[in-house]
Design goal:
heterodimer, A: about 100 residues, mainly alpha, flat, B: about 475 residues, alpha/beta, Rossmann fold, 3 domains, six-stranded parallel β-sheet
Chain lengths: ~100, ~475
């Protein structure tokens, strides 16, 4: 239970930090914010990798493999598409 | 690699995620922010791969390769207009990953007859519940946005009671699963199945135009699901990253709701657009609209000192964002000033219209939020409304009987003159007549937005 309390504290503080950070993002960047945040939530990959590589029977391996694929699409797709969008915002006004 | 070193690396990754979000607060530093966040993810993955818990690498590497390839392909191929669908899909996959990790952890403990501590059991159930709802809910949102299924709310008798029942069933079964000491699997499978069903039944009654809220909310769920998985596997980086994403989605949903003057509960359970249409007290009978031609519109724009463009989703559907920019360049060459007024719900997701205009090379300093620009309309010569309807409907200010009454709108009707580009006289999504179209200052230019603008551009060049 002790460990759970620590985790709950971390979760709560991180939520408040998130609110502060996200409130500063201008409306213009809300779509890249969403896809970028999405990529961050792909951090489940850390759990997926351990499940997939753990040799706990074939069910775990299959579920783990799928989890790695799902999370990795989330991570790579999320970061790549966010980068693509943000590049468009970086363009100089005069550039044709 | 030692446990401490792994933990410290996860801490570094968490800090990089936070920095990345911080730098997203300005378009100038945003690219750097996203890349630093990506770098954080990379080191988190590498350090996880070095963990002793991973004994075989074939499956892991195959998964990484397939996922990366698919993700990269999606990111390259997606059109900017389809960004909401893309984000919906990514949300769904994130939720799916949490469901799978939670599920695998549960089945593993059952297999080796390990008695999980009660808190781990509870968080496994939560991880599975939220992950599954996010997975199927996002796919329904995707299908609605992609128009694979109808965008209209799907309703049936007793729907709310049915959903409530499903929810109670999940909670009851989860509680049972956690409390029984002996090894039983059926409640777990039932929880998975009902949660997947719940994702579907929660999203089908929500109309297509409310999808921005739903996507934001599902984004939040995918973060919370990741955090729950973090509780299950005792991994702080998942908890921190999940909490950050969770709060991001909640804030965006709130912004979207405020922009539509509706509560989150109303969006989720109100089935807007199903009953609307009969709610409006005013009809257009006896009123006439003034039509204009592309030539006249071009003359008007050529001599305008100030022009505000109000883009709506109709512009994106017609892929007219590039031609708008061409028109704006011509007007500016003739000495006029062009600004863009972006309503928060102008696109299909938060900030969508800004991305579409950025794609067409419109500089971001010409894009203005509703609050920034609303006072300027009364000093503006021409307001050009392209494929927008409800967000410029004055009924939201004047008609308490209107379903959109109280929704903040762009003050297009206060400009000296208004040109509305529209395909026909069909009502907006909410099925409400728009008084703006009957305003004596308003001229309607009927036709496909892209075609009409093309003609205006040709005329402007000739002038």
């Amino acid at each position: 239970m002790e460990a759970l309390i620590v985790s709950v504290i971390i979760f709560t503080l991180a939520t408040f930090l998130g609110v502060e950070l996200i409130n500063r993002v201008p409306t213009t960047l809300h779509t890249p914010l969403m896809s970028g945040a999405n990529a961050i939530s792909g951090i489940t990959i850390a759990g997926a990798l351990i499940v997939a590589g753990g040799e706990h029977g074939w069910i775990s391996t299959v579920l783990g493999f799928l989890a790695v694929v799902f999370a990795m699409v989330n991570v790579v797709g999320g970061y790549a598409v966010t980068d693509r969008m943000l590049q468009m915002f970086k363009r100089k006004p005069e550039q044709k | 690699m030692s446990h401490t070193l792994t933990q410290l690396t996860y801490l570094v990754a968490s800090v990089l995620f936070i920095l990345g979000l911080k730098w997203l607060s300005s378009p100038a530093t945003a690219v750097k922010g996203n890349r630093i966040s990506g770098f954080g993810m990379l080191i988190a993955i590498v350090v996880t791969l070095l963990d002793q818990a991973i004994v075989t690498y074939q499956v892991v590497i195959a998964g990484l390769a397939v996922g990366s390839g698919l993700g990269l392909w999606m990111a390259r191929a997606v059109k900017m207009t389809s960004m909401p669908q893309m984000v919906a899909l990514l949300n769904g996959l994130g939720g799916g990953a949490s469901l799978l990790v939670g599920g695998a952890e549960f089945l593993r403990s059952e297999l080796v007859n390990e008695q999980l501590p009660i808190d781990t059991s509870i968080t496994i159930q939560l991880s599975v519940l939220i992950g599954a709802v996010t997975l199927t809910g996002s796919f329904i949102a995707w299908a609605k946005l992609q128009e694979v299924m109808t965008g209209k709310p799907i309703l049936f008798a007793g729907q709310k009671a049915f959903n409530a029942l499903l929810f109670l069933a999940v909670i009851g079964l989860s509680a049972y699963q956690v409390s029984v000491p002996e090894s039983v699997l059926w409640p777990f499978y039932a929880v998975v199945a009902i949660s997947l069903l719940l994702g579907v039944t929660l999203v089908i009654p929500i109309g297509g135009a409310d999808m921005p809220v739903v996507i934001s909310l599902l984004n939040s769920y995918s973060g919370i699901a990741a955090a729950m998985t973090g509780f299950v596997i005792r991994n702080e980086v998942l908890i921190i990253a999940g909490a950050l994403v969770g709060s991001s989605g909640i804030i965006l949903s709130q912004i979207m709701c405020k922009a539509m003057n509706r509560s989150l509960a109303n969006v989720l359970f109100g089935a807007f657009g199903a009953a609307a249409g009969g709610g409006s007290t005013k009809t257009a009978e006896g009123l006439t609209v003034r039509q204009t031609s592309a030539d006249d519109a071009a003359v008007q724009l050529a001599y305008a000192k100030s022009v505000i463009v109000v883009p709506g989703y109709g512009l994106a559907v017609a892929q007219a964002q590039h031609i708008v920019r061409e028109m704006a360049d011509l007007i500016e060459k003739k000495g006029g000033e062009v600004k863009y007024a972006i309503h928060p719900v102008a696109g299909r997701m938060p900030g969508h219209m800004n991305v579409l205009l950025a794609e067409a090379n419109v500089p971001y300093d010409k894009l203005f939020d509703m609050d920034q620009i609303n006072a300027e309309f009364e000093r503006t010569d021409v307001c050009l409304v392209i494929g927008a309807n409800d967000v410029v409907n004055p009924a939201s200010r004047t008609d308490p009987g209107s379903p959109i009454y109280g929704m903040p709108i762009l003050n297009a009707d206060r400009a000296h003159s208004i040109i509305v580009l529209k395909r026909g006289m069909g009502a907006g999504f909410a099925g409400i007549e728009n008084e703006l179209f009957y305003n004596p200052k308003t001229a309607m230019l009927f036709g496909d937005a892209k075609g009409s603008l093309q003609k205006v551009v040709t005329e402007l060049k000739a002038l």
